Amino acid sequence: MSTLEIKNLKVAVEGNEILHGVNLTINSGEIAGIMGRNGSGKSTLSKTIFGHPDYEVTEGDILFNGESILEMSTDQRANLGLFLGFQGPTAIEGVTLSNFIRSAMHAKNPEAKLENPIKFHRRLRKDLESMGLESSFLSRGVNENASGGERKKGEMIQMKYLNPTIAILDEIDSGLDIDALRTVAENIIRQREEGNTGFLLITHYNRLLTHTKPDVIHLMHQGKIVKTGGPELAVELEEKGYENLVREANN
Amino acid sequence: MESKDASERPDIEIDYKAGWADPENFTVATDRGLSEEVVREISKIKGEPEWMLEFRLKSLKLFEEFPTPKWAESAIEDIDFQQIRYYVRYSDKEEKTWDDVPDNIKETYEKLGIPEAERKFLGGVGAQYDSETVYHNLKKELAEQGVIFLSTDEGLKQYPEYFHKYFGKVIPPEDNKFAALNSAVWSGGSFIIVPKGVKVGVPLQAYFRINTQNVGQFERTLIIAEEGSDVHYIEGCTAPTYSSDSLHSAVVELVALEGARIRYSTIQNWSNNVYNLVTKRAFAYKNALVEWVDGNIGSKLTMKYPSIYLLGEGAKGEVMSIAYASNGQIQDTGAKIIHLAPRTHSKITAKSISRADGKTIYRGLIQVAPHAKQCVSNVICDALLLNEESKNDTFPYQEIHRDDATITHEATVGKISQDTLFYLMSRGIPENEALALICMGFFEPFAKEMPMEYAVELNRLIEIDMAEYGAIG
């Protein structure tokens, strides 16, 4: 079993502290959900885990299988088996999804022989179809002229091919219609079963969590995890709302 | 996080793969420097008709009278015209089979992969080594259809009537200082005639190589596509990496007669001690199409603005160019399109990347004449800067003398966004490879216009540059 451990993590952006000591553990094969309002620090947490240069760790540590990853570059962290599904994936002009994924697969395992590009393209096209993406998504640059929903589906495709140990999906559910949400949830469950991948699902809504049935749910507020519980926490949140739950937690 | 701000990245030299030099054991060369004697000597070596000598001498006078362009980058002042050798020849004749090409020269082209390319996908090949063409071959089927593909010297001997009609007519020596220089000392280049209605399905290629230190290469190319014909011509350029400079100053004249199509593709990869000052112009007659696909990767200073004169109704002109200015390089490129007839169309797409202290400049001109009604022109010009020190200037000129012209111009100057880089790196792609991918993606509209082999080569050059760049960064 692999573990990503976040210990008393404090993070500042341009000198302002945003995370005030976060503790969190994600195990491979498990699904964790993290809920919170906009600005509670959820995306800061995911970008910090991947070493985004704008986020400065002022205290605490991030450990993968017991080893600190704070000194590692973004690509090195990814090649440990970490995957980040972006909230707003950027477009990469002129670079096809096929080329992008192949470059990533090659970076992860430079010794492995790459699959024949035509076969790879065919396999990718099939996966796109089952994700509900049109094949024109393949002939454009990554995320070029793509809607928010298409971009999220593209993130799921990339995850499948990179087969990570731990995947952090940042609001993967936003911009998706109900059918697409179900497809995404099914893919998460399948990835856990087939790849023993551990997930941290960052979301506003409990709908994704209802579909994926997390083992653990964290409530994040003002840069801290204020409450941790089982799947029932999502239901409780839906009923009582953030405000009440946070007040209860603080008391 | 090891990723640093772009401005902190150090400068690194390009690993220039074509940078070796063969021994300089030439058989014939003029003395260094330019004079009437040198011009007379070149003409005599070639055994030219009297009128060509007159043309050369007139051009020499014009070159001497022309001031250096005031608007040019100051690097142009460093050219020492008296240090340059204006004519250098290694071989006594032009060969038609590889076996007969002198061994040292043959090896050079084999290293550059030319015979292989010829076998695979070319209809004909010309190879110029310093001043003279050393090899020329055209596939039999094309010759049987009446296609003519010769060195320009040989063309002058065999087809003087075409020279009287077209040579120096598209680009007269009066046009600019470097066109005058080329007209005075020209040697080699390609002469192509595609007869009426003939469509040349495979590209014809010329490969230009400068070998001798301080040599000037002044090839002169003339392509005439007769009515309804179609041809794709490709040129590639390399040179050894010397400590002192060389000069490449070509003139390329294209004539696309009614309904003809000429596509002219260039991958310029001179070593970064070559001044590359080239005049390229096309005449497009009624319903003709001329396309310049122009890639500039190498050289110390390039000044090149392929132009198209749309002379007949319904003519179309397109320029697709890229420029990559790495450390110490200036790529001063652009395009000129002159709409001289009604309902003519033009499109310019210019993309440039500057890295380290490299500088890219776009100079463009769109002109619509008073009688050229209902013209359409579309210009897109995008620059990408990789470092704080890298520079770009954009000078788009328009002279539109019609109200009914549809003219659009879009220009962007951008930097690689931190978010894009982070996105690629979050997939495990190291920074240097991520940068190379972004650059290749940026040049993709150009790469897809090139034959596969060239697109692959372009990507390889960028990868090499970035690999070195990122290794220390």
Tell me briefly what this model is:
The complex is a heterodimer of chains A (251) and B (473). Chain A has 251 residues and is α/β, with parallel strands linked by helices.
Notes on the protein architecture:
- The complex is a heterodimer of chains A (251) and B (473).
- With 251 residues, chain A is an alpha/beta fold.
- Chain A has one domain (3-92, 164-250): Rossmann fold, CATH 3.40.50.
- Chain A is 41% helix and 29% strand.
- Chain A contains nine helices and twelve strands.
- In chain A, helix 6 (148-162) runs parallel beside helix 7 (178-195).
- Chain A is globular.
- The mean pLDDT of chain A is 93.
- With 473 residues, chain B is an alpha/beta fold.
- Chain B has two domains: 19-418, no CATH class; 419-473, no CATH class.
- Chain B is 25% helix and 34% strand.
- Chain B has helices at residues 36-46, 50-65, 103-111, 114-121, 140-144, 152-158, 160-166, 177-185, 418-425, 431-442, 444-447, 452-472, and strands at residues 28-29, 88-89, 124-129, 132-138, 148-151, 190-194, 204-209, 216-217, 220-225, 230-238, 246-248, 251-256, 261-268, 274-284, 289-296, 301-304, 307-310, 316-325, 330-339, 345-354, 359-368, 376-385, 391-400, 406-415.
- In chain B, strands 5, 6, 8, 9, 11, 12, 14, 16, 17, 19, 21 and 23 form a twelve-stranded mixed beta sheet that branches.
- In chain B, helix 2 packs antiparallel against helix 8.
- Chain B is globular, with a radius of gyration of 22 Å.
